[in-house]
Design brief:
The structure is a homodimer.
Chain A lengths: L7 H19 L4 E2 L1 H8 L3 H9 L5 E2 L3 E3 H11 L6 E6 L3 H8 L2 H4 L2 E8 L8 E2 L2 E5 L13 E4 L6 H10 L4 E4 L12 E4 L2 H6 L9
The structure holds a DNA duplex.
DNA sequence: GAAAGTTTGTGAATGTGAACACAAGTACTA
DNA sequence: TAGTACTTGTGTTCACATTCACAAACTTTC
């Protein structure tokens, strides 16, 4: 009932809720309680309720939440209610994993194009996407693609980011293990899979 | 000068600092200021200094930090000063990307084993690692491996986690797009690459 | 239809981390 | 040696996020 600003931490958790809700719907459950949902995402019930309270009343007291309705609302907030087209740059091991990852569909993403520098790869098809030469990056604006995924080797990351920005991209998901610099108006999310593993030993008690 | 508990958020940032310090050392710079380091990781100087202040004085006023010394200390805190052996389960697209990812070496990881269920893959070698049958997971304890990486399809994730726990693993890096349940003593970090992309459209202003 | 059992929504309290400002120490210059 | 320019280390303040507790609303039971 507030409709104020939604905290960043809540936004960070919304995709997780959405994933669980879709899963729950597929199982044929249309009603879900904050407790059940919390268990599915590894949180606690009051956290779930607080998060949802930032954008209106979707539950019914004594009953729970309507999974479909809630999922629709989350999609709307995250702007996933329209198909989001994305361009992938770099079809190596990481790039291939991204192209074949089933999870993107859940969120309404369409990886519409893929680019690489290797002439041998140009023209090949992976999962219905034809690989094009990076020189064709500038066609993105015309094709109405506003999201870029960087999966190139470390040394080419910044250069790729620059090209994506010129091509009119508004958001970048960066898998290269380095910090990239872009204009403030562009949003970048960096994932370094090794970096996340590096946190693990700290939390493990000595044998 | 405090030597108290180090905040979780600081721990989360340490691998990033380490990566930047290694990079800086490779460039031949042995001294680095909080400002330079902050620029390399996309943070601000006082954040960097505050983070380091939780585990002693490593800088020299008017000069900066000794990159090597600082890197050594971060490795020690994160328990990366000894080689950490890890086991990978699932050598599909994501698994292959993990195996060939150059970043793990920076943090002193050794992905010593890989497992899969596909008989066609058993015995094959990827990046010097021979793929074994999942039934051999129980040999992990004997081989002194305490970290597991899950890169199997969604439906097999929980089962794989259970097997890893039985095999004596203490920490799990989970790439499957679902929440997995393990005993409290086991630390799990989940990365869903699609989930992170899902956050991006929210931050992009409407056209 | 009353009582007991669920489950949500949210104000308030508590906890945690980020941002700031500045004293204190070091290097450099002349 | 004095003065200037840097840079760290940290106490304090401020902002934000989590946890808690409980009233309100709904369902079920008898």
């Amino acid at each position: 009932m507030r409709y104020g600003r939604i905290p960043d931490e809540t936004i960070r958790r919304l995709p997780g809720y959405l994933r669980a809700l879709v899963f729950s719907s597929e199982q044929g459950r249309q009603r879900i309680s904050s407790r059940t949902l919390a268990d599915l995402v590894g949180a606690n019930p009051w956290q779930v309720r607080k998060d949802f309270s930032y954008f209106g009343d979707f539950g019914t007291r004594g009953v729970g939440y309507d999974a479909e309705k809630l999922a629709r609302q989350i999609r709307k907030i995250l702007k996933l209610d329209v198909v989001q087209k994305a361009a992938l740059v770099g079809v190596g091991n990481v790039g291939s994993a991204v192209l074949t990852h089933p999870g993107f569909r859940v969120y309404g993403f369409d990886i519409a194009v893929a680019f690489d520098v290797n002439p041998k790869k140009i023209g090949r098809k992976i999962d219905r996407v034809v690989i094009e030469d990076v020189s064709r990056l500038r066609t993105l604006k015309r094709r109405n693609i506003r999201l870029g995924i960087i999966a190139v080797p470390r040394h080419a990351a910044q250069e790729t980011a620059d090209k994506l920005v010129v091509a009119g991209v508004k958001g970048i998901l960066n898998f290269s293990p380095r910090y990239i610099t872009v204009p403030k108006r562009i949003k970048v999310i960096t994932i370094d899979i090794a970096m996340d593993l590096a946190r693990l030993p700290y939390y493990i008690p000595a044998r």
